[in-house]
Write a structure and sequence with these properties.
By secondary structure, this protein is α/β, with parallel strands linked by helices. Helices cover about 40% and strands about 15% of the residues. It contains 7 helices and 9 strands.
């Protein structure tokens, strides 16, 4: 699409896109926060039956209806629907903080940056209590130039890996990730995501079997001890256990795929 310049708009020439399917919980806040730094927000909706569309439009987004193409494919659709080449990739539970909006705006004060993309810390905001700053931080390339890199057109993966020789910047302010409302919500998300990823990243059977028997303690140790969730009380423990269980479930689902293929009843991974 052709870039549209609006002289009175002082925000950087950035488009934000957001995938949605029944995301009324946070979508208005996500859109409003993104519009603090992006000139437009495009919501790519795949058939919401709740108030997602109405809330997004009321908050200032342009909603486009796109049939589900997979987690990566849906982001590709978002990329193509945006007016500007610099893109901010948000999920419908990720809120841009004012500090991050100011930091991004500063990058464009003297024109577009030379980097291909910028990595941004994602801070978990639990259902109860303060955000987990300094603990279990995820870092994702959320701001990027679509002329030089694109999201993979994948059913299960929605993150790109910049080339080793590419200039990738690092932002210091955070996106707040309201990733779960409780353990049931978290477990449902984990279960859904591991089903797709087991098919997309099938490992050799001997490795899968070894992980099933021995992997869980290592998965838990990584999140709870090494990534600091031990400092976050009950929810930190619950989150670490649930995420480790999800990783283990992915191994079990890989095993089931191998067994079905061996018996001649499996689908292509």
């Amino acid at each position: 699409m052709t870039e549209v310049e609006t002289p009175e708009d002082r925000r950087p020439p950035i488009s934000c896109y957001i995938r949605t399917l029944n995301e009324e919980r946070k979508i208005a806040e996500v859109v409003s926060a993104a519009l603090a730094v992006a000139r437009e927000v495009v919501v790519v909706d795949s058939g919401s039956t709740d108030a997602t569309v109405a809330l997004a439009e009321k908050a200032g987004a342009r909603v486009e209806h796109v049939a589900w193409r997979g987690v990566g494919g849906q982001k590709r659709a978002g990329e193509d629907l945006c007016a500007y080449n610099w893109l901010l990739d948000l999920d419908a539970d990720e809120v841009v903080t004012p500090k991050l909006a100011a930091e991004i705006a500063a990058l464009f004060e003297h024109g577009a940056p030379e980097e291909i993309a910028f990595r941004t810390p994602l801070v978990t905001a639990p259902p109860i209590g303060a955000p987990w700053y300094g603990v279990d931080i995820q870092v994702r390339a959320k701001l990027y130039d679509r002329r030089r890199i694109r999201i993979p057109d994948s059913k299960a993966w929605d993150q790109f890996k910049p080339p080793k020789d590419a200039r990738v910047g690092r932002l210091t302010a955070a996106i707040l990730h309201y990733s779960f409302t409780g353990v049931e919500h978290l477990m449902n998300k984990v279960n859904r995501n591991t089903t797709a990823r087991a098919k997309e990243a099938l490992k050799p059977l001997p490795l899968v079997v070894m992980r099933i028997f021995f992997g869980f303690p290592f998965y838990f140790f990584k999140r709870y001890i090494l990534r600091g969730l031990i400092l976050k009380g009950v929810y930190g423990f619950v989150f670490a256990v649930t995420v480790a269980t999800g990783r283990w479930l992915r191994d079990v689902k890989m095993f089931e795929i191998h067994m079905k293929k061996k018996d001649g009843h499996g689908e292509a991974a």
